[in-house]
Amino acid sequence: MKTSRYWVAVVSREHAMRGIAGGFIQVCHGKQSPLKRISKGDGLLIYSPKLSMEGTDKYQKFTAIGKASDEDVYAFQMTEHFVPFRRNIQFMEAREVSILPLIGKLSFIQNKQSWGYPFRFGFFEIPENDFNLIASNMLVHEEV
Q: How distant is the alpha carbon of residue 97 from its chain centre?
């Protein structure tokens, strides 16, 4: 049996909301190669450093959590001259969580002073323990 992997996609909150509504992820300005690294069932977190791609308002929250629902990476015609690649994601009901109280506990952030460094890559793999820590803060559990 294949072991799941866990990923962080860096996407503005505005674009994250579009992806959640449509059940897809689009990363790194529409590049195909990062999305091909994901396998069906892999976990995905969306981290939103800003509210909008063009804006300067900081957000610094994990805004979505889900898993890859299939193996397909597909082109999507957004405009005449922009055809980005997308991947279908099954998003879970979740609350947005600030990264700030989690920085000290996350192993993928090695330099706690320059904690934003890993996010500069736009898309990267994280250890399962880090994914689970973030997920435990995000997932909305039904009251019994």
A: 13
